[in-house]
Amino acid sequence: MLDTKALAEATALIVREHLDKSVHAATAPLLARIAALEARGTDRGEPGRPGADGRDGVDGQGVDPAEVERMIADAVARAIATIPAPAAGKDGLDGHDGRDGTDGEPGAKGEDGRDGAGIGDLLIDRAGALVATFTDGRTKTLGMVVGNDGAPGAAGKDALGFDDLAVEHDGERRFVIRFLQGERSKEFAFDVPVVLDRGVWREGEAYKSGDAVTWAGSLWIAQKDTEAKPDSGDGWRLSVKRGRDGKAAEPVKVAA
User: Fold this and answer.
1) Residue 20 phi, psi (nearest 5)
2) In this structure, what CATH number is given to the domain that contains residue 223?
3) Which of 22, 36, 61, 136 is deepest in the core (most CB within 10 A)?
4) Does 102 map to a domain?
């Protein structure tokens, strides 16, 4: 921090030294001459005759304000150059911390604040707004919390009941459950996994899963929809195997 008081004292000292030097430069020849004359009279022991008039002295030099201003500026620059530069900080040059200021005088006492109020009750009014009642008696509407009733929806259709139910069976595996009400219709179809006797297997006929046929004296049941021959192993399962031929019967003797 720049010490302005010290700078002012240094500036005054420089001006004073300059003025002293100027006065001394102007009066030094005259003082030297007077001293020489006094010394000469002392050596002879008696007063001499009056001497001739001396030569006119040289006019003294006045003080140039511009020169004084330049000398002051140079002196100030030299004084500032002697001030230690602040140490480099992390984010630039950090100066010295200033002194703490003095505490100000306490301010006037303010007025006491009003007592706070809590919520004493909440209710929804007939319009659907939430109203808060505070402990100090005040009330405040906080906004709508119940919406208006929506427009009536379209009339619903009559449900399908047992009176609208019909069941159909194709005589084999297929069942169809159908609901009929005017032009409305809803049905559910499914197959029951039962074995149906289809007789002797016939080439070129399509058989469905669960169909039973006889082939080569054995009973076969289809495991999937197929047209293959039962003994080919493709989609058929042997259910009852053909029995072996029995022995020939012996002749029966008839009594005479």
Assistant:
1) -60, -40
2) 2.10.10.20
3) 22
4) no
Side-chain-side CA neighbours of 221 within 13 Å: the count stands at 9
Q: What is the phi/psi pair of residue 185, to 5°? A: -145, 135
> Do the domain assignments include residue 155?
no
Domain that holds residue 140: 118-145
**Could you give the C-alpha distances from 132 to 114, 123, 144, 193, in angstroms and in order?**
20, 7, 12, 70
The CA–CA distances, whole Å, from 82 to 89, 128, 170 equal 21, 82, 121
Give 75-121 pLDDT, tens digit per residue.
Answer: 777 777 776 665 555 555 555 676 787 888 888 888 887 777 788 88
Q: Are residues 78 and 1 in the same domain?
A: yes
* Cross-strand pairs, 29: none
pTM above 0.85, yes or no: no
- Phi first, then psi, for residue 236 (nearest 5°) are -120, 150
